């Protein structure tokens, strides 16, 4: 059992009734990772129903029907006496699928991890370290999905408060607009090296954008904010860095940056993130609850401009280390 995953699941309320979308999205992610190990065509068809359910194309009745079918497939699986692990992988993958469609997220993750490790070879399951890559991946996926589903909830409130500007997750079609906004917003900024667009590109390429939000007004992307993981004291303490934050010059001082910050903070708070750090003007960011704290420091950053916001628990102590993308040069 992935203990870190179990703790995170409890933290984000994975099994709460209102977290149905998050729960099944995580189930789908786990099983999609090992679906190539499925041997029974009927199990593959049931997995397709789960995918359609997460996408909103089928209802819970159809999902429950598919769940009953794949449960029967799993319990009647012929099993395996092989020692190479391949057939054992298929059995575990089928049980992972059955648990996924039933919404048993942690059980689905556990069987999926066994399926992946069995695929390495039959004896790999005897080495606990063989599971580590799968366990790490599962935790990262749940964190990402928790943030993404939280922003959907945040958007419902935003839509009521601001009928014009929508805060949403970035999509690939936004990338060029995001790049241009970050170039234009920082072109004459006295404290910028004009590499913000390159930083965002590098974070995205490295898979290190924990959350990337855009502000859209009548179909036009007019703002962007990025959140990425940081290390504090050499450890991942579930804190994120806010930035870069950029609003197209013609739309600045209209509250768009504030909306991006507020929606982003609300989303990461709901996802179980412990806190957030940024580098910026305390006169601006204090209104969102950010402040400097002597517990934290960063290389080449004056103490008064390194600001933090604890979302849960105490502020950790140590040197803040950003992702290597922040050292990208033009």
Can you walk me through this structure?
This protein is an alpha+beta fold and 330 residues long. The chain has eleven helices and nine strands. Strand 3 and strand 4 (235-247) form a beta hairpin. The protein is globular.
A few lines on this structure:
The chain is built from 11 helices and 9 strands. The protein has helices at 3-12, 20-34, 41-54, 60-75, 86-101, 105-118, 132-161, 175-186, 196-205, 256-270, 282-285; strands at residues 165-169, 211-217, 220-232, 235-247, 275-279, 291-292, 296-297, 306-310, 318-321.
Instruction: Report the uncertain regions.
Output: 80-85, 156-163
Helicity level:
40-55%
Radius of gyration from CA coordinates = 22 Å
Mean pLDDT: 89
Rounded to the nearest angstrom, the distance between the terminal CA atoms is 45 Å
* Approximate strand percentage: 15-25%
User: In total, how many beta strands?
Assistant: 9
Order of helices and strands: HHHHHHHEHHEEEHEHEEEE
Net shape: globular
Count of helix runs: 11
Biggest sheet features = 9 strands, mixed
Structure classification:
alpha+beta
